[in-house]
Inverse folding.
């Protein structure tokens, strides 16, 4: 086992003539929080898409521990222990909150496919209690029987967090988990994410909100025009002149 | 019965018991509606099976198949062949009909499920039309083409002859160990099968598997990032619903041992879509209601003819009675599909959730009015009402 849980080596991604990612190298140590920042269109989401298997890289490879992720389907990559929250929450709008959290819990237990069509959902007490516990964790327990589609955007985000946490992933990818949240909700999410950090879950987080980035991240990579221009601790990144020029536009953080 | 609650098996058993009583007493309570004759009630049961099976696919996964009549046809042909070659007993006919339809669904599903949405619908439609045309042309040795597959005196019926059932010179009828497949006994055979099918269907609805199917309908993208491969789930749902259609098809052959290709035509596929939407897609009992209502009105409306209509309007002066009768005549008899189309349009526009949505709205209206009235009454009664409303 290598000391890095995520190992992205020499990844390129071209869309026709456009080079969205060039020569990306990213290593994330187990149990740390790694933030990726950068201006719009820098390729942050593309990088996440390559890691979770939504996009195949044009060159290079992605490892999770010792396992190669490149070329695998998204559901296989998830089964290996990679969970992701999306920029726009991807939930099951027509199911209740409780059911939303139960589905990933079944995936964790049953694997890619299981034909258990004669067993009873009611008898799955363990899964249900686990799901209730997760909803409590994100503060949504009192709404557990509501339709997920009827919740506010911030609640949907927290629901998605609970869904992913229920799988206890080895690597948790978060694409702007606090975008569109009020300051109050943002702080609650930061608290929640800090608590997960204590549990030793590795996270890669894309975020625009510097308050979130600097209160969570152990290391930061700065992405601009498809390339990583700087990597280091928050302190190093904050003082790097290249970052100020490319991303912060000379502003002080 | 709302889909967001996890229902206890106990409640489901009570529900099953009520449904069984309602179904088995149909010959009594359908009397005043003039629908208590076995032929029609058998149709209710058979199309009920067809529709609930279809609902497993369309209602749970959201995949709209436009070719389910192909499985109905395969079930019918297989059942008639089983009558011809093996035995007039309905059990082998049903088993072979269901299994063969399942295999057929496996093949069609394997190709069709590579696509979703409208492309899936078109693929299934294409397969069903292909089967229909094959039944008319190259497969004539198996399907007997336009005449349809019929029983004959000289059929081998190997098992029947072995067990010493004597030929009495007339065409034998399908039976269950001597119990006739037509008439009231036939209705009870169909009713029992419908209840068994419904029980399995209920279990699927209440299982983790059913939850995952609904999750696929709700957000297939998230399903992939949740670690499920959606194809095998969709495949299983497709095959199960194909088997339900096959069972329905073989029961059609039990009530009338003649299988024709028109059973596979696209209008037959369309009918089950209509039944499901009319009753309420994705609801437990909606498809059963839809099947009952459509088959009932089909029966009533198609029985009208010009003479009946003229008699009905005989109170009008002659010069008026004829035009009125001919206008109304467009909507009944052969033209009953016109009425059906109109009703369907109204339902889709005003009640997209079908009859079940109508019922839910009505109950909500009634419980709301109840709640509004006893405002000043004690706190306790209010609480009770709230809990009962919650159960609805």
């Amino acid at each position: 086992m290598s000391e890095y849980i995520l190992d992205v080596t020499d990844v390129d991604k071209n869309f026709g003539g456009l080079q969205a990612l060039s020569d990306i190298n990213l290593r994330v140590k187990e149990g740390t929080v790694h933030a990726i920042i950068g201006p719009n269109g820098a390729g942050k989401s593309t990088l996440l898409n390559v890691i979770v298997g939504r996009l195949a890289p044009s060159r290079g490879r992605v490892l999770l521990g010792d396992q190669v992720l490149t070329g695998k389907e998204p559901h296989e990559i998830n089964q290996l222990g990679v969970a992701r929250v999306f920029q726009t929450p991807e939930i099951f709008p027509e199911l209740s909150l409780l059911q939303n959290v139960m589905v990933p819990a079944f995936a964790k237990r049953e694997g890619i496919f299981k034909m258990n069509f004669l067993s009873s959902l009611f008898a799955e007490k363990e899964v249900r209690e686990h799901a209730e516990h997760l909803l409590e964790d994100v503060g949504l327990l009192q709404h557990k029987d509501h339709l997920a589609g009827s919740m506010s955007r911030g609640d949907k985000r927290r629901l998605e967090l609970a869904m992913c946490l229920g799988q206890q992933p080895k690597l948790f990818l978060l694409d702007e988990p606090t975008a569109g949240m009020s300051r109050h909700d943002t702080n609650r999410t930061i608290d929640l994410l800090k608590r997960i950090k204590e549990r030793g879950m590795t996270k890669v987080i894309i975020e625009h909100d510097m308050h979130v980035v600097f209160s969570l991240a152990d290391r930061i990579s700065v992405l601009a025009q498809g390339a990583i221009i700087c990597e280091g601790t928050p302190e190093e990144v904050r003082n790097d002149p290249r970052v100020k020029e490319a991303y912060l536009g000379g502003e002080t953080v | 019965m709302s889909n967001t609650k996890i229902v206890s098996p106990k409640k489901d058993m009570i529900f099953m018991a009520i449904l069984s009583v309602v179904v088995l007493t149909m010959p009594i309570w359908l009397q005043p509606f003039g629908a208590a004759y076995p032929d029609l009630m058998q149709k209710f049961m058979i199309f009920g099976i067809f529709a609930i099976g279809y609902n497993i696919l369309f209602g749970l996964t959201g995949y709209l198949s436009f070719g389910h009549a192909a499985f109905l046809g395969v079930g019918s042909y297989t059942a008639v062949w089983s009558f011809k070659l093996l035995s007039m007993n309905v059990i082998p006919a049903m088993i072979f009909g269901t299994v063969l339809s399942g295999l057929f669904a496996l093949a069609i599903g394997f190709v069709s499920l590579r696509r979703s949405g409208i492309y899936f619908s078109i693929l299934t439609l294409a397969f069903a039309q292909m089967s229909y045309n094959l039944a008319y042309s190259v497969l004539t040795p198996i399907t007997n083409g336009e005449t349809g597959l019929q029983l004959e005196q000289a059929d081998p019926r190997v098992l029947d002859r072995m067990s010493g059932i004597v030929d009495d010179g007339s065409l034998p009828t399908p039976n269950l160990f001597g119990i006739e497949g037509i008439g009231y006994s036939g209705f009870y055979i169909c009713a029992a099968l419908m209840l068994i099918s419904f029980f399995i269907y209920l279990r699927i609805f209440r299982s983790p598997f059913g939850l995952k199917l609904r999750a696929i309908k709700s957000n297939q993208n998230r399903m992939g990032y949740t670690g499920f491969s959606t194809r095998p789930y969709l495949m299983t749902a497709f095959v199960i619903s194909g088997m339900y259609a096959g069972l329905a098809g073989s029961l059609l052959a039990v009530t009338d041992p003649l299988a024709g290709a028109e059973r596979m035509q696209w209008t037959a596929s369309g009918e089950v879509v209509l039944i499901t939407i009319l009753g309420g897609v994705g609801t437990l009992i909606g498809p059963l209601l839809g099947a009952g209502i459509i088959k009932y009105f089909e029966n009533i409306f198609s029985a009208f003819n010009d003479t009946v209509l003229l008699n009905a309007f005989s109170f009008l002066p002659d010069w008026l009675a004829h035009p009125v009768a001919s206008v109304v005549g467009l909507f009944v008899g052969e033209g009953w599909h016109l009425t059906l189309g109109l009703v369907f349009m109204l339902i889709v526009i005003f009640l997209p959730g079908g009859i079940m949505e109508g019922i839910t709205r009505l109950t909500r209206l009634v419980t709301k009015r109840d709640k509004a009235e006893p405002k000043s009454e004690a706190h306790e009664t209010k609480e009770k009402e709230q809990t009962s409303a919650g159960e609805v």
